[in-house]
Amino acid sequence: MxxxxxxxxxxxxxxxxxxLRAEPLGELTVLDVGxxxxxxxxxxxxxxxxxxxxxxxxxxxxxxxxxxxxxxxANVRFVVGDVEVEEYAPFKPDxxxxxxxxxDAIAERAGRVLPPGRVFAFVAFHTDQWKExxxxxxxxxxxxxxxxxxxxxGFAIERLEVEREVATxxxxxxxxxxxxxxxxxxxxxxRWVRYVKFLEEGGxxxxxxxxxxKARKA
Length: 218
Ligand SMILES: C[S@@+](CC[C@H](N)C(=O)[O-])C[C@H]1O[C@@H](n2cnc3c(N)ncnc32)[C@H](O)[C@@H]1O
Description:
The chain is an alpha/beta fold. It has helices spanning about 15-20, 40-45, 60-70, 105-115, 145-150, 170-180, 185-190, 190-200; strands at about 30-35, 50-55, 75-80, 95-100, 120-125, 155-170, 205-215.
């Protein structure tokens, strides 16, 4: 499947990486929450003093460790943990980043751990992501919700923008083919039935939308 607007085939979007690289990464320990197999952590590690990636999925963390070893990266480590439960202070981060894993609990923890002047940056699912399935992700934010959350957690917003791509199809078959890689997950969570209904009623689009944010602790 084609990458989403917030990412390339290799990883996070150039816009997001550029926002992060504008910081003095060489002096910073960066905490990547919901790191998965470490895509963002591994992309950042060569520029950072240190990177810690956390995810609750032990298999993903295993994979991230293998990738770090294969790349010969000695300044990145990966930890199994729940980023909505654990506090981040033990990792002593100077910056917190999150790629497609953002929630109120994560922003609150970033707000508690970062001193004034430090950055929390993320790519979140936008509420319009796959809106044709009529079921926003629990990790999805609109602009208003993200602004409110960041303000509440003590951050001043430096960048907040939506990266959006609306694919348009000529037929139902084409529209189904575009979502085939998501079929199992969508069948499990009820989205598939809603997407099929949308197509049966004449819809021929599939929207991908991410919210890119960079905010600094006030
Ligand atoms: C869409 S994936 C993104 C992974 C990675 N950031 C990337 O862009 O490749 C979301 C990740 O968040 C992790 N995740 C979700 N909730 C979590 C939690 N409460 N604690 C730790 N990890 C979590 C999932 O296990 C998954 O690896």
